[in-house]
Amino acid sequence: MTVNISLCMFLNTMKETLSDVTKDTKSSSRTNNAIKVKSVIPRKRQQLLKWYGWGYKDSMFKLTGETTVFTGKRYSIGEKNLPHFQKWAKDRFNIDTTKTPNIPQLPTCYPDSRLPDTVRQELETIAPISTEGVDRLIRAHGQTLKDISNLRANKFPRIPDAVIWPSDHEQVVQIVECASQYRIVIIPFGGGTSVSGAVTCPANERRPILTLDTSEMNSILWLDGEQLLARVQAGIVGQDLEREMRSRGFTVGHEPDSYEFSTLGGWVATRASGMKKNTYGNIEDLVVQTKVVTPRGVIEKSCRVPRMSCGPDWEHVVMGSEGCIGIVTEVTLKIRPVPPVIRYGSLVFPDWDSGFYFEREVAKQRLQPSSIRLMDNEQFRFGQALKTEASWGGVLLEGLKRVYITRIKGFDPTKLCVVTLLMEGTPQSVAERERILNRIAAAFGGVPAGAENGERGYTLTFVIAYLRVSLCLMLSRCNKNYGAK
Ligand SMILES: Cc1cc2nc3c(=O)[nH]c(=O)nc-3n(C[C@H](O)[C@H](O)[C@H](O)COP(=O)(O)OP(=O)(O)OC[C@H]3O[C@@H](n4cnc5c(N)ncnc54)[C@H](O)[C@@H]3O)c2cc1C
Q1: Suppose 224 and one of 30, 270, 310, 387 were both cysteines; which one would form an S-S bond, judging by CB atoms 3.0 to 4.6 Å apart?
Q2: What ligand 1 atom has the least distance to the C-alpha of 235?
Q3: What values do phi and psi take at 69, rounded to 5?
Q4: What pTM did the predictor assign?
């Protein structure tokens, strides 16, 4: 890992002022025993996840003849017929549904690993390592359009030479020392959901590249229900973290759209933002302390306080650093009790402007609920295309019809837009918030469209990411040579 000169000087100064000593505070509701989390994502990611695009292997839009089904049972629309989807896909993308999509086959040949055997053997004594082509390929990229296009065309100019899976901080220290000694480049890899290009191997990098996969560093080291803090290893996946917290009555509340697959370390390294940031804040508001392994030593703030007035805040240097400064191994995070009431809501507005000015007024009055999202008409129509035959889709249609006839007659379906809401709190605070939001909405021509539409809009966020891979399969006839190299 290379660090530029001014950064080195900064790191050295920080090392003098920050030490790796953290005083533990005693607390009755503290779990000192590490909670080893069983991750949903296996080490061989390709066993569960698509290697050629987003998400679980068993989950995708499957268009056959006149019918469309979203396969698998993981999402609310799973295994249900989507009768309106094909028309939408044909109108928007000119999809020919008579063609059978080709599921890409894994490439059969991969570039040789440039990691010298002697170094591989040395690294093997520290943690499991693989030089298998497929392990390297699926960690050679994030999820940008360019990444997926390169993947589909098998055109990556460079892929990592090996992948290593440390399980704790000490192993990372040893790996970084070894890599520094042999001039090996390390790219940290969490969930691989990057959209900045930062996990993609630089084409002109001549040194061996080692991908450090953090997924086996996924324990909750301790949890303190009194101080409302938890110390967590950085490779934990969002859905694992939230599931474990909730089973103990707590929540972190950080939910980027990618949180099923992205990791705590990835959130820190990319300064991630979550859907419920109005209540919980973005990652920078949740992080109290990070532990970072750099080629020049380990850096960690010496006291566990949310903020200090003297000196620059080290955590703000780490956040957004995209793995360039070092590897985040552990994070102390703020947690909260799970709120007693979680309620969804939705509002329909005649057009984008009225929805926009409604949201601006809500922001002015500082009344944002945990999540508030304005979906434009395109997204609204996509939501309509995802209506299932006999589920909440029907409810939406009926709800909207009723609203049309009684209250919003005259709304143009090609212009209207929807605001989805997620409110959290006590029964009283949620009811009061909902009442005020409805009142403000009315002033901008909006009308309530029900909790089910709100929940649907919120959860469909996770399904939208599957659209690209399914439509690409339908659109491409070019992938018949896929994997030929
Ligand atoms: C469908 C989709 C939805 C998304 N939604 C959101 C969203 O709502 N909000 C948002 O902010 N972003 C979003 N993103 C972007 C992405 O999910 C985030 O940037 C996320 O934080 C990346 O986490 P990751 O674990 O997948 O990291 P990776 O993709 O594995 O890595 C991202 C960067 O962080 C570095 N890194 C990873 N782990 C560590 C570590 N332990 N120490 C040091 N560096 C590390 C990597 O080297 C790389 O530079 C979305 C992306 C997709 C594809």
Answers
A1: 30
A2: 41
A3: -130, 140
A4: 0.90
